[in-house]
Amino acid sequence: ATPVALLVGTGRGAQLGVLIKGPEVLENTRRVDTVVLDKTGTVTTGRMALVETVPADGVDADELLRLAGALEHAGEHPIAKAVAAAAAERFGPLPGVEGFANREGLGVEGVVDGHALVAGRPALLADWGLVLPGELVAALDRAEEAGRTAVAVAWDGEVRGVLVMSDTVKPTSAAAIAGLRDLGLTPVLLTGDNERAARSVAKAVGIDEVVAGVLPAGKVDAVKALQAQGKVVAMVGDGVNDAAALATADLGLAMGTGTDAAIEAADLTLVRGDLGAAVDAIRLSRATLRTIK
Ligand code: ADP
Ligand code: MG
């Protein structure tokens, strides 16, 4: 392969809205047979909206939203943005957070108005020895059954409520996934979110294989497991929690609308955050390499 011909390929990539780290990337692009797709922010818009606030018995719904909103104001996850935006809209400026910690793929922790707060998966709350009361387990189940993302909120040693978020599949995702299949590639949906929310998105866009409920390290393991089966794996993601998996994959593709961590870890950036550009990039690399043979 002559470097010049490959660079022409990368130039055309830029026109298509794809930035390629170096010409050598194209060779891997051509060999890919499996495409692992992150859910939130990659297949979906990642602009979540808070759709339900469920306080535990005896907890004030406003207090739940205000404290959770103040905590999540310091976060970057689509869940954090949804909760903080809903709280700010209702209450205006929110109190500050001390000792904020982002437990990647699990949730967030911090102190607001003297209350030690934690918001996230039930597994994170379990780290604090906290168990959801029956009525909140039921609310969380109902939300997940409906394909939504739900997080639990606790402060001062008690679980105080559940917040329910909805996300929307990007209008271009289903066509892009059909495009990947046309190229002979197998799509796999990979997410830290719950299995039911993942299945509902997978169904909407035409993906059969789903790996859900994984921690960021689990995303790396999922990619490695496919590679161990002899697959050549492309991974598409946008989050900090996707960076390690993007680096592990044979080809990492980052959403240009995503985090710097994802973009730095990837070989290729889809500038407009449109999955259709991934299909174009793979088609382009095959065409380019055919021209120079
Ligand atoms: P995804 O793979 O869909 O991008 P993540 O791995 O980032 O998901 O997150 C997995 C789960 O961790 C979320 O569904 C949520 O339960 C919890 N979580 C992550 N970040 C937060 C946050 N800022 N607030 C509350 N929960 C969170
Ligand atoms: Mg994501």
Concise synopsis of the structure shown:
The protein has 293 residues and is of the alpha/beta class.
Q: Could you spell the SSE succession in H and E letters?
A: HEHEHEHHEEEHHEEHEHEHEHEHEH
Rounded to an integer, what's the Rg over CA atoms? 21 Å
> Cα distance, first to last residue?
7 Å
Average pLDDT value?
91
Looking at CATH, the homologous superfamily of the largest domain is HAD superfamily/HAD-like
CATH class of the largest domain: Alpha Beta
Main location: membrane
Keywords: ATP-binding, Cell membrane, Membrane, Metal-binding, Nucleotide-binding, Translocase, Transmembrane, Transmembrane helix
Organism: Yinghuangia aomiensis
Subcellular location: Cell membrane
What this model shows, in words?
The protein is built from 13 helices and 13 strands. It is an alpha/beta fold and 293 residues long. The chain folds into 2 domains: 3-45 and 168-291, Rossmann fold, CATH 3.40.50.1000; 49-166, Calcium-transporting ATPase, cytoplasmic domain N (3-Layer(aba) Sandwich). The strands form 2 sheets. Strands 1-13-12-11-2-9-10 form a 7-stranded mixed beta sheet, with helices on both faces. The protein starts with a helix and ends with a helix. The model is unreliable at 1-8 (pLDDT under 50). The structure holds adenosine-5'-diphosphate and magnesium ion (MG). This is Heavy metal translocating P-type ATPase.
Keywords:
single chain, 293 residues, alpha/beta, Rossmann fold, Calcium-transporting ATPase, cytoplasmic domain N, 2 domains, seven-stranded mixed β-sheet, six-stranded antiparallel β-sheet, 13 strands, elongated, disordered N terminus, binds adenosine-5'-diphosphate, binds magnesium ion
